[in-house]
Design a protein that fits this description.
Number of domains of chain A: 2
Number of strands of chain A: 12
Largest sheet of chain B: 7 strands, mixed
Oligomer: heterodimer
Number of domains of chain B: 2
CATH superfamily of the largest domain in chain A: Metalloenzyme, LuxS/M16 peptidase-like
Order of helices and strands of chain B: EEEEHHEEHHHHHEHEEHHEEHHHHHEHE
CATH architecture of the largest domain in chain B: 2-Layer Sandwich
Largest sheet of chain A: 7 strands, mixed
CATH class of the largest domain in chain B: Alpha Beta
CATH class of the largest domain in chain A: Alpha Beta
Strand content of chain A: 15-25%
Distance between the termini of chain B: 48 Å
Helix content of chain A: 40-55%
Radius of gyration of chain A: 25 Å
CATH topology of the largest domain in chain A: Cytochrome Bc1 Complex, Chain A, domain 1
Strand content of chain B: 15-25%
Number of helices of chain B: 16
Largest interface: A-B, 83 and 88 residues
Strand order of the largest sheet of chain A: 1-2-3-7-4-6-5
Distance between the termini of chain A: 93 Å
Chain lengths: 469, 438
């Protein structure tokens, strides 16, 4: 009988578990879940602790820095009508006081160490990240573990943070035309699924939150078994695991309620809305019901988007901006959500422009994509662009950590990060045509049109330096 | 060609500086061509010429049309950007390493043989006018655009880089050509490479593709800017605003000013961190604005120190009044030793993130060359920060910043806020311009 040789990572796990005290909580016991290849010569160690905390470590010694990310599997889709925006408000509250630290101490410690910290919330996740000199690993692990377990929520902080979030909403939505249109687009396209409400929340909901709402949310979702830690940087894997085991090992798991998000019924007819706003030129937003990020069709549809409007030689850019000179700006993207989302397109017209010719050209190009296979050359062009974007996302420790965390939480496996590149390279002209036929149909579309308010027209009598001169 | 291999800096026989930052962790190469010219060189009354010239580079060469250029860039899996600031022009981007030679050859063709066709000029002018209109949708950029013009008055720093409707319409091919011939010359250029490339390869690529016409860098100097006396308020009037954008500022320092680093540290104390005074008072304590920060601009001549907030319309007066009070207290009372320690620690330790990629290291070196700064300007930054003490920071504050002479720009619905904002302490004049005047 031959004895299986342990890999270095298995040895590491055995060593760390052996070093645990006899009375250590089972929650601190470490398991190796696997090793993920990460580019040439690198692998990511994927681990889990007894309390359900998932941990990814990628030593990267190219610069003396460290990126520490915590992804919680909770976002706006976990909210309820009337309580929209709670996940995002909570992201703000996580920077407040804990049982051991006054408000502001966390930020002050990170800034004094030369670091930066921030967070983001979207439909499926909430993500906290800190970029620090590599020597600050023990400090950031202690701070993050402390706020996972010991956050203090008082009325005064909730009231103040609600005011900040209300101002953020004014900035991103109420006084930002594209933000306002995007909110309406999703609200119109999704009649049942939580993707229909905005992550930042409706103003009336933000105003009505109370401290009890926040405490309930924290107790439910901020737990090790709903979190993934990612550490990338100039660190030794053993040191990372030891610190994390020490700081997080005794935190208890929570009972995470299963999410039963209402399924969105199929859409068979186009939905349309019209707004009038103080803007110098019309806008057009389109949203086609799209596959989830996990769906194999996602990659092909992403390339279809690039064929349509990725780069200046793309089909819609060439026709609408360069040849016909109908628009000033256009962009499109497929929502990277864990449930089916939207393929969004945005067109900002030139002053005096009208919407029908723009829509006609968009429809012509979508029809062309459904009926004619793209050339191998055109497909190869967008694949090259996509590959460049992929590599650029991995230039910094923070970029690598973000990609790993995103794939782990949204795709369910960080290992998919690199297989996505292979999947992208394997897309054929037939795949593009197939996804165009399946997803890019008018019946699956929501359309928001914006027209300038009466009285808003361009005043070209500039009084700046030239006019005064 | 002479070579200082240790720092991978070459000077070509025609006087072009070439820099290389080698780093092979990813198969990517960043390429950059910078020219020591910017909107400060726009002829008076013709703002936008330099940017127009730069944009026309990718609109067609003697051999290639704009369509062919864009096809080639996209087919290579490259990203190319052309940009223009007050003081320099940049053409460059990033490419997967196996397409580097093709990419550099294309950049070379764009900068060495642009066609500057009249039809392309007309097209770019139409695009620019449409972009000027589109910018009216973004309240923050509206505030920024008006702020520089309002603060700098007749100085070249006031010139809008994009131009305005009148100047853009007046630009001709002759204006563009004149600028190109004078500024796109060998001694006025700095070329940089970062990523999966050796200095030897960089040298060969420059020789083959990036040789500009022989010529000395023009020596036009930018005058010293002055700010009008008193506190002046400009309201950019936009209907239906629930929120305001407030920018206020005064003259700061120039890059080589001995007060620049002490003032940089003092600014971090005031509004450069999340825990800084301004952010703490406006956002953390009162929740008045989602963002509140201050920044110190830098250029050859004195740039602006400014602070930015965006409170709701209801709280605009209260927020602006608070900002003015905080600024006065900061200048008069100076920074405290404990605050200075945090600011210095942040600047010294966070420097690791200024140099953690080859591209960032290259950008620092390009800036050093373009602005003619001492060789150790960036590498010696942390040592200079370390040398700042309470006395030097507070002396720089008092010497360089004035809370009496301030330009204040607010994007707001004027009918709701004009009379209230006019009551801000010390306001000498109030102007209102419509948001859609371009």
């Amino acid at each position: 009988m031959t004895r299986k040789t342990r890999t270095p990572r298995e040895e590491l796990v055995a060593r760390l578990n052996a070093a645990r005290r006899k009375n250590s909580a089972p929650s601190s016991k470490l398991r190796l879940l696997g090793e993920l290849p990460f580019g040439e010569g690198h692998t990511v160690g994927r681990y889990a602790f007894g309390n359900g905390l998932t941990m990814l470590v990628l030593p990267d010694h190219s610069a003396p820095v460290l990126s520490f990310h915590t992804w919680y599997g909770v976002g706006s889709k976990h909210e309820k009508p009337g309580k929209t925006g709670l996940a995002h408000l909570f992201e703000h509250l996580m920077f407040n006081e804990t049982k051991h630290m006054r408000k502001g101490v966390l930020d002050r410690m990170i800034e004094s160490a030369g670091g930066e910290t921030n967070a983001a919330t979207w439909t499926d996740w909430t993500h906290y990240h800190s970029e620090l000199p590599a020597s600050e690993l023990p400090m950031i692990a202690k701070l993050e573990a402390d706020r996972m377990r010991h956050l203090v929520l008082r009325d005064r902080q909730v009231v103040s943070e609600k005011e900040v979030v209300a101002n953020e909403r004014r900035y991103r939505v109420d006084d930002d035309l594209e933000g306002e249109v995007s909110e309406l687009l999703y609200a119109t396209a999704f009649t049942r699924h939580p993707y229909g409400w905005p992550t930042i929340g409706f103003m009336r909901d933000i105003e009505n939150f109370n401290t009890a709402d926040c405490r309930r949310f924290y107790k439910t979702y901020y737990a090790p078994n709903n979190a993934t830690l990612i550490v990338v940087g100039d660190v030794e894997e053993e040191a990372v695991l030891r610190v994390v085991q020490h700081e997080y090992g005794s935190i208890k798991a929570s009972k995470i309620p299963p999410l039963r998000a209402a399924a969105e019924p199929e859409q068979s007819k186009e939905r349309a809305c019209l707004l009038t706003r103080p803007t110098p030129a019309p806008k057009l937003a389109l949203g086609y019901r799209a596959p989830s990020f996990r769906d194999p069709d996602y990659v092909a549809l992403a390339l279809a988007n690039d064929i349509l409007l990725g780069g200046r030689s793309s089909r819609l850019y060439s026709r609408l901006l360069r040849d016909e000179e109908l628009i000033t700006d256009l962009h499109g993207s497929i929502a990277p959500f864990s449930d089916p989302g939207l393929y969004e397109l945005w067109f900002s017209l030139r002053p005096g422009g009208v919407l029908p010719p723009v829509l006609r050209i968009v429809d012509q190009e979508l029809s062309r994509m459904r009926t004619e296979p793209v050339s191998v050359r055109e497909l190869s062009k967008v694949k090259n662009r996509a590959e460049l974007g992929f590599l650029q996302g991995l230039e910094t420790a923070g970029g690598k950590a973000e990609q790993l965390g995103f794939f782990e939480v949204v795709a369910g496996d960080a290992g998919i990060l690199f297989s996505r590149l292979a999947a992208l390279r394997a897309v054929t002209p037939k795949d593009i045509q197939r996804v165009a036929k399946r997803y890019l149909r008018t019946g699956r579309r929501t359309r928001i049109s914006v027209l300038p308010s009466e009285g808003v027209s361009l005043d070209a009598s500039s009084d700046s330096e030239e006019a005064r001169a | 060609m002479t070579e200082r291999a240790a720092v991978a800096r070459f000077v070509t026989d025609l006087g072009t500086v070439v820099l290389c930052e080698e780093e092979h962790s990813l198969p990517l190469v960043h390429v950059s061509v910078s020219l020591k010219t910017g909107s400060v060189h726009d002829p008076r009354g013709l703002s936008g010429v330099v940017r127009m010239c730069t944009r026309l580079l990718r609109m067609g060469t003697r051999k290639l049309s704009a369509t062919q250029i864009e096809e080639r860039i996209d087919a290579m899996g490259a990203h190319l950007g052309v940009g223009c600031s007050s003081s320099y022009v940049h053409i460059g981007g990033v490419v997967v390493a196996h397409n580097l030679e093709k990419f550099v050859a294309l950049i070379g063709e764009l900068i060495r043989s642009p066609a500057f066709r009249v039809a392309d000029l007309s097209r770019v002018k139409r695009e620019t006018l449409a972009e000027l209109a589109a910018a009216c949708d973004d309240d923050r950029s509206l505030a920024a655009r008006h702020f520089r013009a309002f603060a700098f008055g007749e100085h070249p720093y006031a010139r809008p880089i994009v131009g305005n409707s009148r100047s853009v319409k007046a630009i001709t091919r002759a204006h563009v050509l004149r600028h190109y011939d004078k500024h796109f010359v060998s001694e006025n250029a700095v070329i940089g490479f970062a990523g999966a490339i050796t200095p030897l390869r960089a040298r060969a690529l420059v020789d083959r593709h990036l040789t500009l016409a022989r010529g000395k860098a023009p020596t036009e100097s930018v005058p010293v800017p002055k700010l009008e006396k008193g506190r002046r308020l400009l309201i950019v009037d936009k209907p239906e605003r629930t929120q305001t954008q407030i920018l206020m500022g005064t003259l700061g320092t120039h890059l080589d000013d001995p007060d620049h680093v002490p003032l940089t540290v003092a600014n971090v104390v005031f509004g450069g961190l999340f825990t800084a005074r301004l952010t703490h008072e406006v956002r953390s304590k009162r929740g008045m604005s989602y963002g509140a920060s201050s920044s110190l601009g830098h250029d050859r001549q004195r740039e602006l120190w400014s602070m930015w907030t965006f409170p709701s319309s209801k709280q605009a007066f209260e927020c602006a009044e608070l900002e003015l009070r905080l600024m006065e207290e900061w200048i008069k009372g100076g920074v405290k030793p404990s605050e200075l320690r945090v600011a210095k620690s942040f600047l010294e330790k966070s420097h690791a993130f200024e140099v953690d990629t080859a591209q960032k290291r290259l950008d620092q070196r390009i800036e050093t060359e373009v602005f003619g700064l001492p060789e150790d300007y960036h590498s010696g930054f942390t040592a200079r920060v370390h040398g700042v003490n309470v006395q030097s920071a507070n002396a720089a504050l008092k010497k360089r910043l004035s809370s009496d002479d301030l330009a204040i720009v607010v994007v707001a619905t004027a009918k709701d806020l004009r009379s209230e904002l006019a009551k801000l302490p010390g306001i000498r004049s109030v102007e209102v311009v419509p948001f859609d005047r371009i």
